[in-house]
């Protein structure tokens, strides 16, 4: 049973059925890979639709998506491996075993941003407009992908006795928490938070189409970054497996930094009433972006 809603009227117990969807001889289909693939397909389709609504060629999104996948997934894995290097240095063959889990969304965002910047420069298009079209798909993909942590019994929170909780098998528990059975379902917290951010971005997008109000180029991506980071700072504090830099949780540090930059960017747009710089060719992004 995956979810038992009979535990309490207002509670539920999550129990993972395991990481494997099906085995077909030597072929193993895992939930983690299936969810990532689904997130990519749904995200590309959504961004193409949003591009059409903004009178942008959807083929541009198709081409960009190839760049993003090629850059983001390896970058997400590399980011994770670097902060778990003592473990992977002992088992280097596991570095490429991404299907077993172990990717970091901040690594994916960094890799994807670099790829989008290069793509925008080569195609002479607005970098910030591309990020606006991708932002809703990105947060929706994160909401979907977090369920991979559920099936892998990973990225869970501290022990809890709350009505909503996640059962973790003993072989997946930290050694110092092996006597606890139930933990915060942080995958669920982040998935739900991401869905709320997605709803916010989509609402802003369609209200902007009706000019209520018109959004400046780069707004959706900055709102995405601020809103996602806000939730991640809170949720990361509950987790037991954070990537660490000394005594500091890397995800919280990056999120706080990103949130600060995002808020500054929004202030630049709406308080100082300036446009974001054209990071591709120099000049004014607002002026060069199509309506």
Automatic annotation (TrEMBL):
Topological category with respect to the lipid bilayer: Multi-pass membrane protein
Subcellular localization(s) per the UniProt record: Cell membrane
Residue spans crossing the bilayer: 31-52, 64-83, 95-120, 192-210, 217-235, 250-271
Annotated metabolic or biological route of this protein: Protein modification; lipoprotein biosynthesis (diacylglyceryl transfer)
GO cellular component, one term: plasma membrane
Binding site for a 1,2-diacyl-sn-glycero-3-phospho-(1'-sn-glycerol): 146
One GO molecular-function entry: phosphatidylglycerol-prolipoprotein diacylglyceryl transferase activity
EC numbers on record: 2.5.1.145
Residues of the signal peptide: none
Record keywords, A-Z: Cell membrane, Glycosyltransferase, Lipoprotein, Membrane, Transferase, Transmembrane, Transmembrane helix
InterPro entries xref list: Lgt (IPR001640)
Biological-process GO terms, alphabetical: lipoprotein biosynthetic process
PROSITE patterns: LGT (PS01311)
Top-level taxon: Bacteria
Pfam families in alphabetical order: LGT
Similarity annotation: Belongs to the Lgt family.
Function description: Catalyzes the transfer of the diacylglyceryl group from phosphatidylglycerol to the sulfhydryl group of the N-terminal cysteine of a prolipoprotein, the first step in the formation of mature lipoproteins.
NCBIfam families: lgt
Protein's recorded name: Phosphatidylglycerol--prolipoprotein diacylglyceryl transferase
Organism encoding this protein: Dolichospermum flos-aquae CCAP 1403/13F
Gene encoding the protein: lgt
